[in-house]
Amino acid sequence: xxxxxxxxxxxxxxxxxxxxxxxxxxxxxxxxxxxxxxxxxxxxxxxxxxxxxxxxxxxxxxxxxxxxxxxxxxxxxxxxxxxxxxxxxxxxxxxxxxxxxxxxxxxxxxxxxxxxxxxxxxxxxxxxxxxxxxxxxxxxxxxxxxxxxxxxxxxxxxxxxxxxxxxxxxxxxxxxxxxxxxxxxxxxxxxxxxxxxxxxxxxxxxxxxxxxxxxxxxxxxxxxxxxxxxxxxx
Length: 234
What we know:
Helix content is 83%, strand content 0%. By secondary structure, the chain is mostly helical. It has one domain (2-233).
């Protein structure tokens, strides 16, 4: 797994993708910090983190689009199949490489919090809650998009399907307000990433929300591994 992780992590920076992804995330972080804190002259960073929630939803598919699909297109997955690494180890190596790049990209929010602390006073419980929420959101979304990348040889299709998945997660909140049945409302509220993320935004670390995001991540990593194993014997 470590070898796969190193290979995939280095691949991000042997091409523009890793640099561009981090740069774009830093750009949005700086922009929303400027608009939400400097322009409004406030130390409340909620606006920044709330906007980053949406940014992450639609940028992560770009980060993950090549992880599985590129190996299928180039045929290098056959080399991986003959390696001593297990199928799940291959998937985990790719997953953690993308997750490491993602962590680097959201570090800009921590830098902004330190800037606020330098000049004034940062509400650290809320900031830490937001950061944990972003980390868990990224962990689950990367796993979902990794799974989708494994379903196609096309990076474009992988990215588009990731965008569609992200859009679906956003639309779940809209469905809550339009469905009439109590059962459906409860189900959509339970599945709502935004609803789960909200608790972190006020500094509340709800164990059930942590388990939810980690369970989603684990589920889709396992599904990706199962799909890879199936292709090996097909």
